[in-house]
Request: fold
Amino acid sequence: MKRPTVSYSTRKSAQKAVPKPALKSAGGMTIRRPPTLILVLALYFIANIAVRLLMPHGLELDEAEQVYFSQWLVAGYSSQPPFYNWLQNAAIHLFGTSLLTLAALKNLMLFATYLFYWLAAREVLKDKRLATVAALALITIPQVAFEAQRDLSHTVAAIFGTALFLFAFLRVLTRPSAGAFLLLGIATGIGGLTKYNFALVPVAALIAVALDRDMRRRLLDWRIVITVVVAALIVSPHLAWLLDNGQSASSHTMKKMLGDDSNFLVGIAEGLGSLATAVIAFIALTVVVLALVFREGLARIVKASNPNTRLIGRVILVCLAAIVLMILFAGVERVRDRWLTPILLIMPLYLVLKIDAAEIDVLRGIKRLWGVAAVIMVLVPAALIGRSLAGHWTHNYAYTNIPFANLARTLAPMAMQPGTVIITSKGHYAGNMRFNLPNVPVIMTVPLTGMTPVSLSHYRRAIFIWRNSDSSRPQSFEEAFGSYLKANGLSAENASSAIAGFPFLWGAPMDQSLFGYAVMDLPPK
Reply:
């Protein structure tokens, strides 16, 4: 029996939506109001920018890293691809080093993520109203809603890259054109520069299409050459860097994922267990929320299926199967939910496609989901502020509370003199000092991956910064920087060192963070 051909062209909703009101411009042209979803999301992300500006101005780990790396524009920086670094570098050079620059870029990318996810859903949903459900479902994912606001950069880029890829991929399937294939190439290239594990998504999408008899003709479309060429051009600068620095760049990530258990079976069990835990942590809340808000049609939703659900389901399964193979044959024992972000970000779309396939009345569920989203949109900014406030009572302070600004003001008279460089051993300290003294070069004792150590011969004075993570009294200057001093032919005896304490930002009156600093005149070269 011949299998019926499935059309992936845009289809009209089975339930007619109420036409959106339109405005008349002075010239008589019709201007449609933006969808409510877009307006609400724009206001929400503007509010998150405002919240970050209200919080203490100590930088989180990723924020500090971005500020530190912004001193250079190179093809690669560390264990992560450079897409977010490049964007942050451009933003800082255009608008200056400020908390607004950091927060605005992140929230603009998150807003674009929701927008592209909404557009992707519209490409394949019969009931276009469910595209709003797909976008709002993202806010039920902790990694997207809270962690991305708290302190993520490369993961935010991967979230954006995945949403853009989904839109381009589904656009090629539903409305193929040279422009759609071009967009798919751009999305694939950008995604490849966000996180290395993003590569699983386009490969899985390719396999999923190849497994479908009605869709695999897209693979034979000559315009796919556009996709391949454009993607290759975008990733080529970093790929060339990676060929020279691959081992150094991957060692940090692989150290987190690979286990040291000598028992092969125990290692596999730990790997599969961590994968299951990560999947549940990432998507459980979304599944529960959608099940509750569409509870009347839950039985039909579970059973519902159509070509779109099968396609997206195959993409997810192929990705997860690849990770299982890594656990079985590559020694991966620790899989984190953050590492799964590009893969599991596709899951809300799959769930909404199941709802669409069930052909149930969705209006009540959409209204309920708006209520859930409204609560989360209040809780997330409140939780962010609460983290910075909590130290006042718990005496356990967040990175935002650390008073680097006070240290910078103390050191500014010396640091601002020509020929001065600030040296630290950790990226968090380096980024915070660069943030508060943006005109002073800051370097770390360990150079960026692929870069030669910065020569101190270019400078006349060095200011060394260090501290303990628990804010206790720091070790001596020689203990903190002995190896670095020896490697550069310097002696701690020629430095003037001191310990300085400052109250935590938003902290209890008696709580202080202690810093060590040393000032050294460098010998002429």
In short: The two ends are 84 Å apart (CA to CA). Residues 36-382 form one domain.
